[in-house]
Amino acid sequence: MWKDGLWVETYGTVEELNATVGVVRVMNVEMSVVHVQAEELEEQLRWIQNKLFDIGSILATVAGQTFKNMPRVTGADVTRMEKSIDRCQKDFDPLKEFILPGGGKVSGFLHQARTVCRRAERVCVRLLREEPVDSANITFVNRLSDALFVLARWAAKTQGEREFIWRRDVKKTAG
């Protein structure tokens, strides 16, 4: 595999996403002293990082090759993430505006992780069009971007950080 090949770009982007989630965990540790919910977030992020490592390992394995105890991502993993999304957003009112990335340290870096996740998803889909890839991995990455958005909002709420709402800059014109 060439370093600029699509397989390498795909698992490299998943690795970048994993590192970004790791930065969130570092920021979250600082909050665990003051916010009990930080430990719940830590558990979620640790699980997410392990699943991303699984996906990276799968993508770094030559297509068609398998080995004993090869990691897998399954529909059950996706279901677990969707239940986490539901649990975190149960106290939110429906969104009526767009949320701008930012807020506090943890929520801001979760938004950053979400954008890296979206890029990872695009690269995974591009790979899927050209090579055989288990679609469960792509479904996981797709749902993960939604989970990271919800976790950013949940972290902001539970850690007392504000959310930045997008406001359209509408200027009145003389008429």
Write the layout of secondary structure elements.
Elements: H1 6-31, H2 37-60, H3 75-89, E1 99-100, H4 105-130, H5 135-158, E2 164-165
Antiparallel strand pairs: 1-2
Q: In the CATH scheme, what's the topology name?
A: Hypothetical Protein Ta1238, Chain: A
Q: Sheet bearing the most strands, described? A: 2 strands, antiparallel
Strand order of the largest sheet: 1-2
Order of helices and strands: HHHEHHE
Can you tell me the CATH architecture? Up-down Bundle
Roughly how much helix do the residues carry, as a percent range? 55-70%
Percentage of residues in DSSP E strands = under 5%
CATH class: Mainly Alpha
How many structural domains?
1
State the fourth-level CATH superfamily. Answer: Cobalamin adenosyltransferase-like
Q: First CA to last CA: what distance?
A: 62 Å
- Count of strand segments: 2
Structural class: mainly alpha
> What's the alpha carbon Rg, rounded to whole Å?
18 Å
Number of helices: 5
Question: Please, what is the average pLDDT?
Answer: 85
Could you characterize the architecture of this molecule?
The protein is mainly α. The chain has a single domain, classed as Cobalamin adenosyltransferase-like (Hypothetical Protein Ta1238, Chain: A). Helices cover 66% and strands 2% of the residues. It contains 5 helices and 2 strands; from the N terminus they run αααβααβ. It has helices spanning 6-31, 37-60, 75-89, 105-130, 135-158, and strands at 99-100, 164-165. The chain has a two-stranded antiparallel ribbon. Helix 1 (6-31) packs antiparallel against helix 2 (37-60), helix 3 packs parallel to helix 5 (135-158) and helix 4 packs antiparallel against helix 5 (135-158). It is globular, with a radius of gyration of 18 Å. 31% of the residues are buried. The model has no long low-confidence stretch (mean pLDDT 85).
